[in-house]
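Entry:
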Amino acid sequence: MLRRVAFMACLLASAAPAWAGDTPIYQPVPDWVKQAPAPDPGKLPTPRPQILIFDQQQRVEDGRLSSIRTARQGRSAS
């Protein structure tokens, strides 16, 4: 009986709705975000590939999660 109650409590707790806005919020990049370093062009294989860097940084502060995702694209000199 106790197992069923615990199982039902877990099911009910996991069924909470997500309260998100309809539109994304765009703000300036916070001070805690550090730009990802560019790869060393001397260590790239030949022929030089197009480079695409994805970076994701997260910070948990005061019970709030902040997440920053960036992507940089460029072509290295050949």
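The radius of gyration is 22 Å.
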